[in-house]
């Protein structure tokens, strides 16, 4: 099987690689296992030096790396450079804080008849990371930084349409001074994941991707009795109540929907607007969305580049066409533009009903579904009427409304008067079909640790 880089701006292939065969995979896994036995004995200071050096490399090579990311998956150069800077920050965060996050945790020795009792966090070993193309650097770094600082080693199976970014990541930590084989990229097909995860040398896995991919990898991991963290899709609600700053909410809603060309699990996708401000919000939102420039992602004035794959655009087109055929109204966009590349414009749909596929689907493109509600209770009921539960937003200056939303929205995250995003300092993950486990902060670094209980007489 060939693994290829295809420029979504032109539809043209510009690089091709062969997948590793089974023998090569076994050799790579064995090398990772050997590296894990030594790397687990290194100290936080040594690991931190490697991560800080990796951050410095990212800073120094931002322009060339951003160009590669843009060419492979179509994000704007501006977005690519911002992603690289975020990765450097994440690396430095864990380099600075891992020792404290994983410090021995004292227990009540007297209560358990001990002179001393505590919990110690120790690495599990070799972790398989199955990662998506939409944030081809950040998705990997937010796993790798905490995992490596905890003393684990990583095997990366990246999306097949970003092989050059994957290979860059595979070499980054070696260049930064970490021992050989502590982090490796495996150019393999999805069909080879099962045998890798079932290998006794692989201790656990993490996957960011679709619900289907999560079910597959989760099932394999369960059968092999191995830990797995899953961050899957989202259909995040964006609730706007009458007390909100409507102009600000509409502006942030636009960014939240078109970020990364609309291809983000935590992008706001369902805009649930109270009757009292529905018309005002819709007018402002359509104006903001309509001002987004669709075009060449290397142009600094471009807001929305192409979708990453041809199939991705087909999926978005089919969802919009189905909605329109069942009575949805198109307030903006809704048509595939002519010319080369996999472009799709900023689109706003209203009058969405449960009979439409878009009602329950995750739309991976710059398409917003706008709903009208008459109360906060109705808004929360609609927000929860999805199989997903990743992020969510509520816009209100009423503290009681905010507290109710925080309590009742079924999601891993609630952002009040702001856009859902990820920070090293905040736990990241979802509930329901959006997956389980957490990434980032102390919750993320502990996911791939053995929490060892120590009792001393």
Automatic annotation (TrEMBL):
Gene Ontology molecular functions: aldehyde dehydrogenase [NAD(P)+] activity; succinate-semialdehyde dehydrogenase (NAD+) activity
InterPro entries: Ald_DH/histidinol_DH, Ald_DH_C, Ald_DH_CS_CYS, Ald_DH_N, Aldehyde_DH_dom, ALDH_GabD1-like, GABD/Sad-like
Domain of life (superkingdom): Bacteria
Every Aldehyde dehydrogenase domain range: 3-454
GO biological process, alphabetically ordered: tricarboxylic acid cycle
Keywords: NADP, Oxidoreductase, Tricarboxylic acid cycle
Family membership: Belongs to the aldehyde dehydrogenase family.
Protein name: Succinate-semialdehyde dehydrogenase [NADP(+)] 1
Native organism: Gordonia jinhuaensis
């Amino acid at each position: 099987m060939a693994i290829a880089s295809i420029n979504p701006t032109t539809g043209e292939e510009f690089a091709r690689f062969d997948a590793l065969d089974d023998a090569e995979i076994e050799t790579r896994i064995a090398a990772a296992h050997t590296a894990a036995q030594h790397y687990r004995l290194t100290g936080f200071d040594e690991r931190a030096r490697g991560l800080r050096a990796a951050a410095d490399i990212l800073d120094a090579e931002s322009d060339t790396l951003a160009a590669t990311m843009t060419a492979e998956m179509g994000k704007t150069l501006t977005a690519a450079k911002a992603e690289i800077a975020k990765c450097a920050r994440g690396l430095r965060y864990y380099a600075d804080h891992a020792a404290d996050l994983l410090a021995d945790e004292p227990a009540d020795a007297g209560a358990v008849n001990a002179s001393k009792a505590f919990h110690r966090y120790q690495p599990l070993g070799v972790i398989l990371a199955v990662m998506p193309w939409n944030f081809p650097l950040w998705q990997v770094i937010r796993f790798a930084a905490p995992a490596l600082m905890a003393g684990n080693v990583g095997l990366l199976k990246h999306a097949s349409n970003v092989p050059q970014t994957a290979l860059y990541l595979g070499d980054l930590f070696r260049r930064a001074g970490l021992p050989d084989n502590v982090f490796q990229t495996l150019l393999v097909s999805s069909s080879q994941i099962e045998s890798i995860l079932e290998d006794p040398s692989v201790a656990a896995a993490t996957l960011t991707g679709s619900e289907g991919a999560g079910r597959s990898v989760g099932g394999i991991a369960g059968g092999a009795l191995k830990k797995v963290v899953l961050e899957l899709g989202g259909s995040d609600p964006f609730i706007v109540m009458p007390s909100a700053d409507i102009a600000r909410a509409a502006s942030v809603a636009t960014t939240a929907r078109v970020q990364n060309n609309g291809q983000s699990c935590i992008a706001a996708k369902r805009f649930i607007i109270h009757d009292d401000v529905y018309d005002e919000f819709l007018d402002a939102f359509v104006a903001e969305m309509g001002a987004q420039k669709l075009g060449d992602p290397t142009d600094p004035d471009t807001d929305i580049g192409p979708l990453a794959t041809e199939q991705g655009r087909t999926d978005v087109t089919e969802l919009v066409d189905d909605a329109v055929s069942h009575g949805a109204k198109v307030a903006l966009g809704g048509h595939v533009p002519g010319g080369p590349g996999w472009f799709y414009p900023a689109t706003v749909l209203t009058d969405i009903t449960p009979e439409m596929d878009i009602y329950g689907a995750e739309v991976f493109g710059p398409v917003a579904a706008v709903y009208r509600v008459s109360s906060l209770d109705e808004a929360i009921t609609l927000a929860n009427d999805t199989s997903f539960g990743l992020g969510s937003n509520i816009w209100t200056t009423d503290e009681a409304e905010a507290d109710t939303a925080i309590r009742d929205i079924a999601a891993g995250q609630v952002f009040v008067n702001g856009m859902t995003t990820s920070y090293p300092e905040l736990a990241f993950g979802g509930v329901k079909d959006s997956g389980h486990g957490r990434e980032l902060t102390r919750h993320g670094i502990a996911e791939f640790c053995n929490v060892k209980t120590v009792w001393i007489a």
